[in-house]
Amino acid sequence: MKNKSISTVIILGALSMLSILIIQLLWVGRTIETQKVSLAIQQKEDSLNLKEFQDHVHSSLMNVLSTIQKREGDQSDMYGAVRQLSNNHFTVDFNEELQPFYLETLLKKEFYIQNIHRDFYYGIYDCFTDSIVLSNRVRYKKDSIYVTDVVSTDEITPEKLNLTKDGHYFTVYFPNLELGEIEPQNDYSPWIYLTLMLVVIATFFAFSVTVIMRQYRLAEVKTDFINNMTHELKTPISTISLSAEMMMRLPEITSEQVHKYAGIIYKENKRLEHQVERVLNVAKLDKDQVILNKDRFDVNELLDEVKENFELHHLEKGGIITIELNATNHIIQADAVHLTNVIYNLLENAVKYCESVPSITIQTRNDKNGIWIEIEDNGIGIKKENLSLIFDKFYRVPTGNLHNVKGFGLGLYYVKLIVDAHGGKVNVKSTPGKGTTFSLFFP
């Protein structure tokens, strides 16, 4: 039921994200089409404005030339006299002597009449005197008059006005003409915004799915933990209750029977106490209440003691532990009690998750930063997809057909917690069906 609910949430989320994508694509497509239409209209308007401007300039220059030659109405001799070099640059051929001030006055008058309200420069080449005259900038003011700069603020040269010693002409140049020139858009393409939006949405969706799956897995693990804890706690309680009941039911009970049932009660009570203590200890550790009593001690000696005690109490039915102490620098600063518990946890797992006779190897070795302790077993191994989860609290690796494995899923969590508290690290390598190797590093 839970799997179906999660699948439904994921499918609905994916459909929602797809719907947003489709809406965004439609919106972007419509926006692009609107921009294209607006750009085409603007280009058309600017083209018309430019043509109108050029016609007015041409008409003004024709009137100026007509005034200079004093031949108004006679267009035959002026045909082709006005030439356009570019959108903002014009030249006029003439055959009369021309004073700069007189030309400037005519240009101002005609430009004003034709509503050409723009700054301009003019230049004259007189072939009779072989001289070039350059004007200062003639500025159009808001009060509808033209003012000539006393000192030009712009650099105008004969080369910029195309003035050469060829013919008899004057030229007019309009600076900063923007008509007909569409400036490039500075706005980013809508596709960039769409891409960013999709990245944000996809990231949020992926994060939400990850959180949901993590919470679902945690809920399953906690349920499994509660079931296991209930079983682990009920078993010794039932045994204690049964033993006490047997003692009360027997009409005559010998001291040997009392000793037997009392021993069972004591053993099961200790087992129950041990299980409760494990849960409480992990609860304290989870609240960052890890208190390490660090002392300098010999790791090799500690491992020898652990080996002997473990063989005595846990390998009654067979098995072997081989120890290879290769570390030459084996004195460390650590908590001996917690380190002993860590090694015991790993050895217990090696025995619990073994379908044959346990064969365990403990090795030590040095590197330049500290000491490594490696525990290798011949157990059932761990699948690759489970390796990243084995240190999670309450997580228990699925054991397939091995149904006699009990526990809370706290052992490896405790191992990781203690090693991290010492500033070390834990590595694990495993091959299903062949065994697992845990490597503990302590600085």
Unreliable stretches (pLDDT < 50, length at least 5) are 179-188
Major sheet strand order:
1-2-7-3-4
Main sheet makeup? 5 strands, antiparallel
Figure out the total of helices. 8
Number of strands: 14
Mean pLDDT: 76
Report the sheet-strand fraction.
15-25%
Radius of gyration of CA atoms, rounded to a whole number: 48 Å
- Given helix and strand content, the structural type is alpha+beta
The string of secondary-structure elements, in order, is: HEEHEEEEEHHEHEEHEEHHEE
What is the total number of structural domains?
A: 3
Folded structure, characterized:
The chain is an alpha+beta fold and 443 residues long. Helices cover 50% and strands 17% of the residues. It has helices spanning 2-69, 100-113, 190-249, 255-286, 299-314, 336-352, 384-387, 411-421, and strands at residues 82-86, 89-93, 121-126, 131-134, 138-140, 146-148, 169-173, 295-298, 320-325, 331-334, 359-367, 370-376, 425-431, 435-442. Strand 3 (121-126) and strand 4 (131-134) form a beta hairpin. The radius of gyration is 48 Å and the shape is rod-shaped. Residues 179-188 have low confidence and may be disordered.
Features:
Heat Shock Protein 90; 443 residues; 5-stranded antiparallel sheet; Helix Hairpins; 14 strands; rod-shaped
SSE diagram, text form:
Blueprint: H1 2-69, E1 82-86, E2 89-93, H2 100-113, E3 121-126, E4 131-134, E5 138-140, E6 146-148, E7 169-173, H3 190-249, H4 255-286, E8 295-298, H5 299-314, E9 320-325, E10 331-334, H6 336-352, E11 359-367, E12 370-376, H7 384-387, H8 411-421, E13 425-431, E14 435-442
Helix pairs in contact: 1-2, 1-3, 3-4, 5-6, 6-8
